[in-house]
Amino acid sequence: MQRVTIVSVDIYEEIPRLRREGRKAALATITNVRGSIPSFETAKMLVRDDGTIVGTIGGGCVEAEVWEAAREVIRNEKPQTLTFNLNNNPKYDTGLVCGGTLEVFVEPVLPVSTLYIFGAGHIAWNLYKVARIAGFDVVVIDDRETYANRERFPEARDVYSDEYEHVMAQLTPSEASYMVIVTRGHRDDMRVLRWAAETPARYIGMIGSQRKVIAIYKELEKEGIAPEKLARVYAPVGIEIGAITPEEIAVSIVAELIAIRRGSETPLPHMKSVKAAEILRVTEKEL
Predict the structure, then answer these.
(1) Taking the model in full, what pTM does it have?
(2) Distinct helix (H) and strand (E) counts, the chain
(3) What does DSSP say about strands 5-6 and 53-55: parallel, antiparallel, or unpaired?
(4) Which of 111, 117, 211, 241 counts the highest number of beta carbons within 10 A?
(5) What is the pLDDT of residues 26-53, one digit of tens each?
(6) Over the stretch 209-234, which tens digit does the pLDDT of each residue have?
(7) How far apart are CA 67 and CA 82, in angstroms?
(8) CA distance linking residue 136 with residue 122, whole number of Å
């Protein structure tokens, strides 16, 4: 993809704008300089998820390599440090009197993690509290005004009290969105999951027994929802820690959200139904 530099945009204004829009970027900063280089220490370049850039760290081959590294950082969400020796490699010859070395730190700029909680009962209330502590923006949705209100969820970004279909029609979840379905009944869970499975949300979790999960999956498959879309749902939701109380269940769910957000490579005892996943795989092969 062609790189485009836009110098009229302020990096410090662009970063919060991108995060609000649910977009990723990478910020490259020159952190260490020895000798002469075609830029200066602390120079910055922001690379957006579409490959366009704001600012510069000096141009030339160094900037091109940093741009490539930034694209990788955006993909895997892990920082990198790059070192360039302008003395020993002719490809870095810019035609200027440069003969130094420099280090560039490239860090991911990630969108705000938004958690949509469908349901506003006891588990949802505790989930809201724990998720807020963990740094999630929380949106609460329920069709009961006595539960979904600002008195119960004062620090939520948004609180909706209306029919689920009416609210879902207003929402625009992104790849930085997380969804947990903890409504008061099987029917409402299925209504929400029917919509959620078609969104680009990074995480979808649904509470309930394995039996309930399988029943909902089978019903949604009959309606034409592809098995692979249901297979990515974490249901039953949370990490297996023996949780019983609403407070403990909330902790197990947020632990799973954090693991997904941070790209944890450690094997974890997810509650996600193995049996339900097997049924989906068999169904998919039969199609």
Answers:
(1) 0.81
(2) 9, 11
(3) parallel
(4) 117
(5) 999 999 888 766 667 788 999 999 999 9
(6) 888 999 999 999 899 998 889 989 99
(7) 11
(8) 19
